[in-house]
Design brief:
The chain has 201 residues and is an alpha+beta fold. It has three helices and nine strands. The chain has a seven-stranded antiparallel beta sheet, covered by helices on one side. A two-stranded antiparallel sheet has the order 2-3. The structure holds Palmitoyl-CoA. Palmitoyl-CoA (PKZ) is lined by residues 5-7, 9, 63, 65, 71-73, 75, 78-80, 125-126, 129-130, 133, 140-143, 169-171, 191, 193.
Protein backbone atom coordinates (compact mmCIF):
# COMPACT_ATOMS: atom_id res chain seq x y z
CA UNK A 1 0.00 0.00 0.00
CA UNK A 2 1.31 3.43 -0.92
CA UNK A 3 1.22 6.08 1.79
CA UNK A 4 1.50 9.80 1.25
CA UNK A 5 4.02 11.73 3.33
CA UNK A 6 4.40 14.26 5.05
CA UNK A 7 2.85 13.60 8.39
CA UNK A 8 1.67 16.24 10.81
CA UNK A 9 4.02 19.07 11.51
CA UNK A 10 3.22 22.50 12.90
CA UNK A 11 2.68 24.99 10.07
CA UNK A 12 4.73 27.58 11.97
CA UNK A 13 7.77 25.35 11.77
CA UNK A 14 7.45 24.54 8.06
CA UNK A 15 6.81 28.20 7.28
CA UNK A 16 9.84 29.31 9.29
CA UNK A 17 12.02 26.72 7.55
CA UNK A 18 10.71 27.84 4.14
CA UNK A 19 11.43 31.50 4.91
CA UNK A 20 14.96 30.65 6.08
CA UNK A 21 15.49 28.65 2.88
CA UNK A 22 14.44 31.77 0.94
CA UNK A 23 16.81 33.81 3.11
CA UNK A 24 19.76 31.51 2.36
CA UNK A 25 19.11 31.84 -1.37
CA UNK A 26 18.82 35.64 -1.04
CA UNK A 27 22.14 35.69 0.86
CA UNK A 28 23.90 33.64 -1.80
CA UNK A 29 22.55 35.86 -4.58
CA UNK A 30 22.88 39.23 -2.77
CA UNK A 31 24.82 42.03 -4.44
CA UNK A 32 28.05 43.00 -2.70
CA UNK A 33 26.95 46.08 -0.74
CA UNK A 34 28.95 45.96 2.54
CA UNK A 35 26.77 48.35 4.66
CA UNK A 36 23.58 46.67 3.42
CA UNK A 37 25.01 43.23 4.12
CA UNK A 38 26.16 44.20 7.62
CA UNK A 39 22.74 45.71 8.39
CA UNK A 40 21.03 42.50 7.22
CA UNK A 41 23.47 40.43 9.31
CA UNK A 42 22.58 42.43 12.45
CA UNK A 43 18.84 41.98 11.87
CA UNK A 44 19.26 38.25 11.28
CA UNK A 45 21.34 37.95 14.44
CA UNK A 46 18.39 39.39 16.42
CA UNK A 47 16.04 36.75 15.06
CA UNK A 48 18.60 34.03 15.73
CA UNK A 49 18.93 35.14 19.36
CA UNK A 50 15.16 35.10 19.85
CA UNK A 51 14.97 31.52 18.56
CA UNK A 52 18.02 30.46 20.56
CA UNK A 53 16.23 31.59 23.71
CA UNK A 54 13.74 28.76 23.08
CA UNK A 55 16.31 26.13 22.11
CA UNK A 56 15.39 22.43 22.36
CA UNK A 57 17.93 19.82 23.43
CA UNK A 58 17.82 17.58 20.34
CA UNK A 59 17.51 18.35 16.62
CA UNK A 60 15.27 15.31 16.26
CA UNK A 61 11.65 16.26 15.66
CA UNK A 62 9.57 13.14 15.41
CA UNK A 63 6.36 13.14 13.40
CA UNK A 64 4.25 10.33 12.05
CA UNK A 65 5.53 9.90 8.49
CA UNK A 66 4.49 6.64 6.86
CA UNK A 67 4.86 2.87 7.20
CA UNK A 68 8.29 3.33 8.78
CA UNK A 69 6.66 5.12 11.73
CA UNK A 70 7.82 8.26 13.46
CA UNK A 71 10.63 10.02 11.65
CA UNK A 72 12.43 13.30 12.11
CA UNK A 73 10.95 16.23 10.22
CA UNK A 74 14.36 17.85 10.69
CA UNK A 75 16.04 15.31 8.43
CA UNK A 76 18.57 17.36 6.41
CA UNK A 77 17.48 15.95 3.04
CA UNK A 78 13.75 15.35 3.34
CA UNK A 79 12.66 17.23 6.41
CA UNK A 80 10.28 20.13 5.80
CA UNK A 81 11.24 21.47 9.25
CA UNK A 82 14.91 21.85 8.36
CA UNK A 83 15.90 24.90 6.26
CA UNK A 84 18.99 23.02 5.08
CA UNK A 85 16.81 20.37 3.42
CA UNK A 86 15.85 21.18 -0.22
CA UNK A 87 13.34 19.44 0.94
CA UNK A 88 11.69 16.42 -0.75
CA UNK A 89 8.03 16.67 -1.73
CA UNK A 90 5.32 14.46 -3.27
CA UNK A 91 6.84 11.47 -1.48
CA UNK A 92 5.30 8.14 -2.31
CA UNK A 93 6.53 4.99 -0.60
CA UNK A 94 5.56 1.36 -0.97
CA UNK A 95 7.19 -2.04 -0.54
CA UNK A 96 9.13 -1.66 -3.79
CA UNK A 97 10.62 1.68 -2.90
CA UNK A 98 10.04 5.41 -2.99
CA UNK A 99 9.51 8.24 -5.41
CA UNK A 100 9.70 11.91 -4.65
CA UNK A 101 10.33 15.33 -6.10
CA UNK A 102 13.12 17.71 -5.20
CA UNK A 103 13.92 21.20 -6.45
CA UNK A 104 17.41 22.52 -5.80
CA UNK A 105 18.29 26.20 -6.01
CA UNK A 106 21.37 28.34 -6.66
CA UNK A 107 22.34 27.57 -3.06
CA UNK A 108 23.22 24.05 -4.20
CA UNK A 109 25.33 25.05 -7.19
CA UNK A 110 28.54 23.07 -7.79
CA UNK A 111 29.50 23.17 -11.48
CA UNK A 112 28.10 26.33 -13.13
CA UNK A 113 24.30 26.10 -13.25
CA UNK A 114 24.38 22.53 -12.02
CA UNK A 115 23.79 20.91 -8.64
CA UNK A 116 26.85 20.02 -6.53
CA UNK A 117 27.54 16.28 -6.75
CA UNK A 118 27.53 15.94 -2.96
CA UNK A 119 23.94 17.13 -2.82
CA UNK A 120 22.96 14.71 -5.58
CA UNK A 121 24.63 11.91 -3.60
CA UNK A 122 22.89 13.01 -0.38
CA UNK A 123 19.48 12.75 -2.03
CA UNK A 124 20.30 9.36 -3.54
CA UNK A 125 21.63 8.11 -0.20
CA UNK A 126 18.48 9.25 1.54
CA UNK A 127 16.30 7.69 -1.15
CA UNK A 128 17.88 4.24 -0.87
CA UNK A 129 17.51 4.44 2.94
CA UNK A 130 13.84 5.30 2.51
CA UNK A 131 13.31 2.57 -0.09
CA UNK A 132 14.73 -0.28 1.97
CA UNK A 133 12.88 0.89 5.08
CA UNK A 134 9.63 0.96 3.09
CA UNK A 135 10.39 -2.57 1.94
CA UNK A 136 10.63 -3.65 5.57
CA UNK A 137 14.43 -3.69 5.88
CA UNK A 138 15.48 -0.55 7.78
CA UNK A 139 19.23 -0.22 7.29
CA UNK A 140 22.16 2.20 7.20
CA UNK A 141 24.17 2.87 4.08
CA UNK A 142 27.57 1.12 4.19
CA UNK A 143 28.46 1.73 0.55
CA UNK A 144 27.07 4.15 -2.03
CA UNK A 145 28.32 4.26 -5.61
CA UNK A 146 27.13 7.25 -7.61
CA UNK A 147 27.47 7.69 -11.38
CA UNK A 148 26.94 11.21 -12.68
CA UNK A 149 25.73 10.90 -16.25
CA UNK A 150 24.86 14.52 -16.89
CA UNK A 151 24.83 17.72 -14.92
CA UNK A 152 21.75 17.95 -12.68
CA UNK A 153 19.96 21.27 -13.15
CA UNK A 154 18.62 23.39 -10.31
CA UNK A 155 15.50 25.55 -10.37
CA UNK A 156 13.38 22.78 -11.87
CA UNK A 157 11.56 19.90 -10.16
CA UNK A 158 13.57 16.67 -10.33
CA UNK A 159 12.24 13.14 -9.91
CA UNK A 160 13.93 10.86 -7.40
CA UNK A 161 13.33 7.13 -7.48
CA UNK A 162 14.79 4.36 -5.35
CA UNK A 163 14.07 0.65 -5.22
CA UNK A 164 14.86 -2.17 -2.86
CA UNK A 165 16.69 -4.79 -4.94
CA UNK A 166 17.47 -7.75 -2.66
CA UNK A 167 18.64 -8.83 0.76
CA UNK A 168 21.51 -11.15 1.61
CA UNK A 169 21.75 -11.73 5.38
CA UNK A 170 22.25 -8.30 6.97
CA UNK A 171 23.15 -6.71 3.63
CA UNK A 172 20.40 -4.95 1.73
CA UNK A 173 20.91 -3.86 -1.89
CA UNK A 174 19.14 -0.90 -3.46
CA UNK A 175 19.33 1.31 -6.52
CA UNK A 176 18.27 4.89 -7.13
CA UNK A 177 18.23 7.57 -9.76
CA UNK A 178 17.51 11.24 -10.15
CA UNK A 179 16.08 12.63 -13.36
CA UNK A 180 15.10 15.88 -14.97
CA UNK A 181 12.29 15.97 -17.51
CA UNK A 182 12.65 12.22 -18.10
CA UNK A 183 16.45 12.31 -18.50
CA UNK A 184 18.35 10.43 -15.81
CA UNK A 185 21.24 12.59 -14.63
CA UNK A 186 22.65 10.36 -11.86
CA UNK A 187 22.27 6.79 -10.68
CA UNK A 188 23.36 5.05 -7.50
CA UNK A 189 23.73 1.55 -6.21
CA UNK A 190 24.01 0.95 -2.51
CA UNK A 191 24.72 -1.70 0.06
CA UNK A 192 23.01 -1.04 3.35
CA UNK A 193 23.38 -3.02 6.57
CA UNK A 194 20.32 -3.86 8.65
CA UNK A 195 19.96 -2.09 11.97
CA UNK A 196 20.54 -4.45 14.84
CA UNK A 197 18.90 -2.24 17.49
CA UNK A 198 15.98 0.22 17.44
CA UNK A 199 15.67 2.25 14.25
CA UNK A 200 16.60 5.87 14.90
CA UNK A 201 14.19 8.53 13.56
C1 LIG B 1 7.53 14.86 7.69
C2 LIG B 1 8.27 13.59 7.56
C3 LIG B 1 9.76 13.68 7.58
C4 LIG B 1 10.39 12.34 7.46
C5 LIG B 1 11.87 12.34 7.48
C6 LIG B 1 12.33 11.08 6.93
C7 LIG B 1 13.60 10.54 7.49
C8 LIG B 1 13.81 9.18 6.90
C9 LIG B 1 15.10 8.64 7.22
C10 LIG B 1 15.25 7.32 6.54
C11 LIG B 1 16.23 7.40 5.48
C12 LIG B 1 17.55 7.78 5.97
C13 LIG B 1 18.57 7.43 4.99
C14 LIG B 1 19.83 8.00 5.41
C15 LIG B 1 20.94 7.21 4.86
C16 LIG B 1 22.12 7.55 5.62
O1 LIG B 1 22.56 8.67 5.63
S1 LIG B 1 22.88 6.33 6.53
C17 LIG B 1 24.18 7.22 7.32
C18 LIG B 1 25.52 6.98 6.65
N1 LIG B 1 25.96 5.70 7.04
C19 LIG B 1 26.54 5.48 8.22
O2 LIG B 1 26.72 6.35 9.05
C20 LIG B 1 26.98 4.07 8.48
C21 LIG B 1 28.35 4.01 9.13
N2 LIG B 1 28.80 2.62 9.18
C22 LIG B 1 28.43 1.83 10.21
O3 LIG B 1 27.81 2.27 11.20
C23 LIG B 1 28.78 0.39 10.12
O4 LIG B 1 29.85 0.23 9.21
C24 LIG B 1 27.60 -0.47 9.62
C25 LIG B 1 27.08 0.02 8.24
C26 LIG B 1 26.45 -0.38 10.66
C27 LIG B 1 28.02 -1.91 9.49
O5 LIG B 1 28.69 -2.26 10.67
P1 LIG B 1 28.37 -3.64 11.42
O6 LIG B 1 26.97 -3.62 11.93
O7 LIG B 1 29.47 -3.85 12.39
O8 LIG B 1 28.38 -4.69 10.26
P2 LIG B 1 29.60 -5.55 9.67
O9 LIG B 1 29.63 -6.81 10.47
O10 LIG B 1 30.84 -4.73 9.53
O11 LIG B 1 29.06 -5.83 8.20
C28 LIG B 1 27.85 -6.53 7.98
C29 LIG B 1 27.91 -7.02 6.54
O12 LIG B 1 27.95 -5.86 5.67
C30 LIG B 1 29.15 -5.91 4.85
N3 LIG B 1 29.67 -4.56 4.70
C31 LIG B 1 29.95 -3.67 5.69
N4 LIG B 1 30.44 -2.54 5.15
C32 LIG B 1 30.46 -2.73 3.81
C33 LIG B 1 30.85 -1.92 2.71
N5 LIG B 1 31.31 -0.68 2.88
N6 LIG B 1 30.74 -2.44 1.47
C34 LIG B 1 30.26 -3.68 1.27
N7 LIG B 1 29.85 -4.50 2.28
C35 LIG B 1 29.96 -4.03 3.53
C36 LIG B 1 30.12 -6.79 5.63
O13 LIG B 1 31.06 -7.39 4.76
C37 LIG B 1 29.17 -7.82 6.25
O14 LIG B 1 28.84 -8.76 5.26
P3 LIG B 1 28.53 -10.30 5.64
O15 LIG B 1 29.75 -10.79 6.38
O16 LIG B 1 27.28 -10.27 6.53
O17 LIG B 1 28.31 -10.96 4.32
Amino acid sequence: MTTEVPGKLSPGRTTLAARVRDLIEAVVLAEDDPPGLLDAAARIEEVTESLRARRRESPRLLVQADTVGRLSANNPVEGPGNPLAPPLSRIRVDVDGMRAEVTFTAVHEGPPERVHGGWVAAVLDHAVGRAVAAAGHPAMTASLTVDYHEGTPYGVPLEVEARFARRDGRKVYAIANISSGGTITATASAILVLFTGPVPG
